[in-house]
Design brief:
This protein has about 425 residues and is of the alpha/beta class. Helices cover about 35% and strands about 20% of the residues.
């Protein structure tokens, strides 16, 4: 199962090229929230994307119908299709499918419509005379992958994956499995989330999961740094064209990499807490590596979850050591959340995009803002500056509320175009 097309929308620029430029430059795209007045909140910074749906070519009716997160996904899938060079008109639509990941789905539109229905929260009993004709589209998450399916005319398996912050990894992993088992020939897979709304900000404020470094937004996301105090909420999306290697080779397609292994686990322990030993993530890594038919020493680079919370960074550091042994100390590790923030369910796919581009260009993106490493995080986290490296095999991992732990191995195919 290989990736032949990429589309990204993330903070700091629209499109895959701008996204990769930001990462390799080590620039940060986190700033004070501009979409609403953030002053009442503990965390007032975010990774906002400068997304213009009109510029993206969406019609006024599409903009009215689609939540912002759905708009991101549609824009990304259009880019991914063009990048793949695949003519979907020539495909059997019943052999084309979609998997889309999201943690909070249409949160932007739901909050907006609640404010209209309740007159900005004044009325406990809302007035349904103000009900939007598109409320169903916002209430039912499966509408989001349906919109993507309509964009390309996919009539095969279509699914929504919502596993919190591992959704973007799990969506792509599920798509690869559907191709492997013969249920589809081509899959559009990825994830999207636009959670920068007052209610989502307030929810993370309540558990103090997000950073309080409001006076220094550009340096607020500090994965693996001793001074880190929470993640920076963000929005974003990434979508991919997946197909079998034989299918891609037959049409002379450019192949970014193979999805060589994937596994997911749950710690069955706590909604937000993590065990310090990283056992469940280590098990997901072990299975993904075994599925790829390699051992841990073949991993050239680890794209970490690296959220910037105290417990997560220590948890996955322990997981890397547990799964890879001494090789963990010799393997570059970095977190792109230091530059683009944490887009919840979307970030796993955004990080897959970064991993594929690291393989493509032979460059490992840095962990920005890492100036004083936590002694308990004692691996090579590529601080501040990108590093040239012959990247053949990447391990990308995710960790999500609910105890979800996911791992994916991406590998360059020798001789592929």
């Amino acid at each position: 199962m290989v990736v032949t097309g990429i589309g990204v929308r993330a903070p700091g620029g629209n499109g895959t090229k701008e996204f990769w430029s930001l990462l390799t430059d080590g620039r940060t795209a986190t700033r004070r929230i501009t979409g609403f007045d953030p002053s009442p909140y503990r965390s007032q910074v975010a990774g906002e994307a400068d997304f213009d749906p009109v510029w993206e070519g969406l019609t006024q009716r599409e903009i009215r119908r689609m939540d912002r997160a759905t708009q991101f996904a549609v824009a990304c899938v259009r880019d991914a299709v063009v990048d793949s060079g695949l003519d979907f008109e020539t495909l059997d639509p019943h052999r084309v499918g979609v998997t889309l990941g999201s943690a909070v789905a249409a949160a932007t539109s739901l909050e907006r419509e609640y404010l209209v229905l309740s007159d900005s929260g004044r009325d406990w009993l809302v007035d349904d005379a103000w009900l939007s004709a598109h409320m169903f589209d916002y209430m039912v998450p499966s509408v989001m992958p349906a919109e993507v399916a309509w964009t390309v005319g996919a009539e095969g398996p279509v699914a929504m994956v919502s596993n919190g912050c591992t959704s973007g990894l799990d969506s792509v992993g599920h798509a690869a499995q559907l191709i492997r088992e013969g249920s589809a020939e081509v899959m559009l897979a990825g994830a999207t989330d636009t959670p920068i709304t007052p209610i989502v900000v307030a929810c993370f404020d309540a558990i103090k999961a997000t950073t309080s470094y409001n006076d220094d937004p550009e340096h607020a996301s500090r994965p693996f740094d001793r001074s880190r105090n929470g993640f920076v909420l963000a929005e974003g999306a990434a979508m991919f064209v997946l197909e079998s290697y034989e299918h891609a080779e037959a049409r002379g397609a450019h192949v970014y990499a193979e999805i060589a292994g994937y596994a997911g686990r749950c710690n069955a322990y706590h909604m937000t807490g993590l065990k310090t030993d990283g056992r469940e993530m280590a098990e997901a890594i072990r299975v993904a590596v075994a599925q790829a038919g390699i051992d841990g020493t073949a991993i050239d680079y680890i794209n970490a979850h690296g959220s910037g919370t105290k417990q997560n960074d220590r948890h996955e550091t322990a997981a890397f050591k547990r799964a890879l042994g001494e090789h963990a100390y010799r393997t570059p590790v970095s977190s792109i959340k230091s530059m683009v923030g944490h887009s919840l369910g979307a970030i796993g796919s955004v990080e897959i995009a970064a991993s594929l581009l690291a393989i493509e260009h032979g460059v490992v993106p840095p962990t920005a803002n890492l100036t004083e490493p936590d002694p308990e995080c004692d691996l090579d986290y590529v601080p501040q500056t990108a590093r040239e490296l012959d990247v053949r095999t990447v391990l990308s991992v995710g960790s999500g509320f609910g105890g979800f732990q996911s791992a994916m191995v991406l590998r360059r195919i020798a001789g592929a175009r």
